Amino acid sequence: MEFRIERSALTDAVAWAARVLPTRSPVPVLGGLLVEAADGRLRISGLDYEASACIEVEAETVRAGKVLVMGRRLLDVCRVLPEGAVECAVEGSRFSLAGGGARFGLSVLPLDDYPSLPSLPEVLGAVDAEEFAAAVAHVTVAAGRDDALPVLTGIRLALDGDTMTLAATDRYRFAVRTLSWKPGKDGVSVDVVVSARRLTEIARSFGGSGTVRLALDTGSVGFELAGMRATVRLLDGRLPRHDKLFAMKDPVSALTDRAPLVEAVKRVAVVAEGGTPLQLTFSGGSVLLQAGYEDDVASQRLPAALDGTDELTVAFNPSYLMDALASFHAPVIRFELLGPGQRAMVTGWASREDAVAEASQPAHRHLLMSARPLV
Fold first, then answer.
1. DSSP 8-state symbol, 23
2. Among 123, 131, 139, which residue's Cα sits nearest to residue 211?
3. What pTM value is reported for the model?
4. Could you tell me if 332 and 351 are in contact, meaning their C-beta atoms sit under 8 angstroms apart?
5. CB 314, CB 251: distance < 8 Å
6. Fewer CB within 10 Å, N side or C side of the chain?
């Protein structure tokens, strides 16, 4: 095998495929990337037991062939190669890369031991890459981190007609985001759970442009865009439905500007140690943020509007509150509050007038469990 390609194109392709490589694996060949050259195209593939990635780019093929080489070492080499054209070839038991006066030789892995790359499942439709990446980012902050409860580390992907719903929860918070997509046929109805980490990596890697083709079968979900293809194994189980949890009966509503609130939470939370909550007291056209207890304390007051009562105090885990606020980009935040120690809904709005009028159902909603206020 022998081919020529620009260093930047090779590095980008190797980096994209290497995203799925396991950090550690008892099977050495799973740390490898399969490099194939033929007919003016270069294909680089990687996989582990959960996911696969394959990317095709243009390259001048001198001699067709394929080779398996350690992926992370190949990426390290690509990153330090001089800019310009790179000549790559298999020479005996080594894969050589040469360019700009630099030359590297990497040992190759046995091709016979490498598993077959999974095929792309049946394509169901397509979704805008940028909107999909934003939606995944909105909900992934609420996904669990405990591998002992694998289904809670996932994102629910539900398709119903032309509506896609993404949702995640770790039992203490619940984020939901809806968006439009284009089904390839009528009657598409899907409800599966995908690893939040894997889905986030894939959504980010598509670069936020173009249309992503979505594919699905009984065991995996696949994505394809502009020569890039990825598959992820589905997680067993189902996430709890959010419908009843999100039904807030007669909540108290509070409005405040998002940017000042984010800065105030960051500032006041500095003294919140040992899992102590950050308290918000809404009253008299303002909200008072307080954190700390006994020795170290902090507070800040911001303008806010409260509707439904004269005063209300709630408290939140500072990290959870910060994650929720950071997932929004709208200038106005609305809290729907049931009281201390109960559910609280957070939504973002373009203006206070829109939030009061509730002209439309927000596509992005984040539910938090409030804690008991500070003593």
1. S
2. 131
3. 0.91
4. yes
5. no
6. C
Say if CB 55 and CB 16 are below 8 A apart: yes
26: CB partners within 8 A, 6+ apart:
none
Q: Report all structural domains of the chain as residue ranges with CATH numbers, in order of start.
A: 2-113 (3.10.150.10), 122-233 (3.10.150.10), 252-369 (3.10.150.10)
Beta-bridged to residue 283, according to DSSP, are: 286, 311
pLDDT in tens, 1-37: 999 999 999 999 999 999 999 888 778 899 999 999 9
Neighbours of 8 (CB within 10 A): 13
> Using only C-alpha atoms, what is the Rg of the chain?
25
Which residue carries 């509007």 as its tokens?
305
In terms of C-beta density within 10 A (0-12 exposed, 13-18 middle, 19 or more buried), how is residue 294 classed?
exposed
d(CA 130, CA 132): 5
Length in residues, the chain: 375
Convert the pLDDT of each residue in 221-263 to its tens digit.
999 998 999 999 999 999 988 988 999 899 999 999 999 999 9
Render pLDDT for 65-117 as a digit per residue (tens, 0 to 9): 999 999 999 999 999 999 999 999 999 999 999 999 999 999 999 999 999 98
Is the four-CA dihedral 207, 213, 216, 219 of positive or negative sign? negative
Give me the sign of the Cα torsion angle 212, 143, 117, 206: positive
> Do 162 and 202 contact (CB within 8 A), yes or no?
no
